[in-house]
Structures are given as structure tokens and as C-alpha cells.
Amino acid sequence: MDDANDAARVEAPHTANGNSPVILHYVAIAVVCFVIGLVLGRAAPRPEAEQEPVAFDEAQLRAVVASVLEERALEAAADEAPDRFALVDDDPYLGETDAPVVIIEFSDFFCGYCKRHFDQTFAPLLENYGQYIRYVYRDFARLTEESTPAAAAAQCAFEQGKFWEFRADFFADQSALGRDFYIETAEKHELDMERYTECLDEGTYVDEVDIDGLDGQLAGIRGTPGFFINGQILSGAQPYSIFERMVQRELDKAGINYRASDDQ
């Protein structure tokens, strides 16, 4: 009796993900039977008209099953594919709206690593691949109490078409960021000062900045800079070579035969 009980306790072998091969075998059989049922059901004679019975050999059935399974696999892959426009808001961007590669940066003007990205990667990336990139800037203003006001100040400049100029000036001298500097920068770029000052004082874009940060957090951004390249997350001020590799891979997927070295 003990031997019988011990034998009864022996579990069936499991795969790496915990599923029994026997169960998976039954599932496969069920799928095949289901498909066969569909095929035979479609081929069954209708009451209103007599038809010759249709015979299916094993090769035909296997072909049908393979076709159905392949179709399901393609549908699943499409469902899991990242949406490169999922985090594109109404924020500043450079490039064409239908560019094959969409890069979304979440950044803080007080972030030293964001400055490193701006100084070392941003310019050569656009110089080499700009015709294929839509580059979007979104705020992740979390580092200091002044992070949100600085981001809102840049958004006020965006309202007058000067965001990217402000971004360059802000990263050029992060220690100077504050109201006086925002005003000086607006004057430097010849903005409508009454309109700009009103935007600044009323905090017109503070909520927009907060929404950017929330979107980034929900999408998985945990620090700055954080990027999405056609929906694929990339964290930190990674070297130019990493961005180039990811952009090149997306161009290859899109069937675009281009190498930056071709233009050198």
C-alpha cells in the first residue's frame, strides 16, 4: 500500500513555466480538433441541397491548423507591438509628424544627465538621422522646487515658437535658472514680453507640466532623462552609439536602407 501511495504521489514532469507537458499536449489536441471541426462543419452538406462528401487527408488538415496558428501568432505579436505614438502629446517636437522613428524624451532642466544628453547626443543624433526622426520633448520636473516653474517657463516660450531656443539656453547655464533668467531669455529671443510675463505669472502651463510627469511615471519613467524610441524605453544619458543602434534598427524594420556613414 505504501508503495502504491508513493507512486500515486509522483507528479507529472513540468516545463520551465510550470505547465505540464501532458496538459500542453491536450491543449494542442483540443486546438487541432477545434479547427478540424470548423473545417468539417463548413464542408458539411446543407439540408436544402445534396452535396458530395468532401474528404480531407492528413496533409490538408495539418496545413489548415498551421495556417490558423500562424494567424493567431501574428495577431498576438501585433497586439504586443509598442505604439510609437502612444506618449506623443501636444508638446514641442522637431521633425516630420510621420517620421518612421519617434523619440520621446522626458527631462528636467535641472538634471545634469539631461544636460549631458543635450551636449553629447542630441545634436549629432539629429544631424545624422534628423530626416527620419520626430523628436518630442516632455517634462519630468521632479528634481527641485524650481523644476516645474522652469518647465512652465519654457512652455510659455513654446507658445511663441521659441521652445528649443529656451531649452538650449536653460541647459547652457542650469545654475542661472529662475524668474529673472526666464525674463532675460525671453527678451533675448524677442518674445512678446507682456504676453510672456502674463503666462509666467499665471502659471499657465503648470498643469501641463504635471500631466507630462504623470504620463511619464505611468509609462515607466523613474528618472531623468528617460526616452521612448518607437515605444521602447531607454533610461539614462546613454551614449550616442546606443541611440544610433536603436534608430538604425527601427529604420531597418521600416525597410529604409540608410546608414549615417553614407553621408560622411
Descriptive account of the structure:
The protein has 10 helices and 5 strands; from the N terminus they run αααββαβαααααββα. With 264 residues, the chain is α+β, with helices and mostly antiparallel strands. The chain has 2 domains: 2-80, no CATH class; 93-263, Glutaredoxin (3-Layer(aba) Sandwich), CATH 3.40.30.10. A 5-stranded mixed β-sheet has the order 1-3-2-4-5. The chain is elongated and about 80 Å long. Residues 1-28 and 73-81 have low confidence and may be disordered.
CATH superfamily of the largest domain: Glutaredoxin
Shape: elongated
Estimate the helix proportion, in percent: 40-55%
CATH class of the largest domain: Alpha Beta
CATH architecture of the largest domain: 3-Layer(aba) Sandwich
Q: Uncertain segments of ≥5 residues (pLDDT<50)?
A: 1-28, 73-81
If strands are numbered along the chain, what order do they take across the biggest sheet?
1-3-2-4-5
Primary descriptors:
264 residues; alpha+beta; Glutaredoxin; 2 domains; 10 helices; 5 strands; 53% helix; disordered N terminus
Describe the structure concisely for a colleague.
The protein has 264 residues and is of the alpha+beta class. It is built from 10 helices and 5 strands, in the order H-H-H-E-E-H-E-H-H-H-H-H-E-E-H. Strands 1-3-2-4-5 form a 5-stranded mixed β-sheet.
Write the layout of secondary structure elements.
Layout: H1 2-9, H2 21-43, H3 58-80, E1 93-94, E2 101-107, H4 112-129, E3 133-139, H5 147-158, H6 163-172, H7 179-188, H8 193-201, H9 206-219, E4 226-229, E5 232-235, H10 240-253
Parallel strand pairs: 2-3
Antiparallel strand pairs: 1-3, 2-4, 4-5
Helix pairs in contact: 2-3, 4-10, 5-6, 5-9
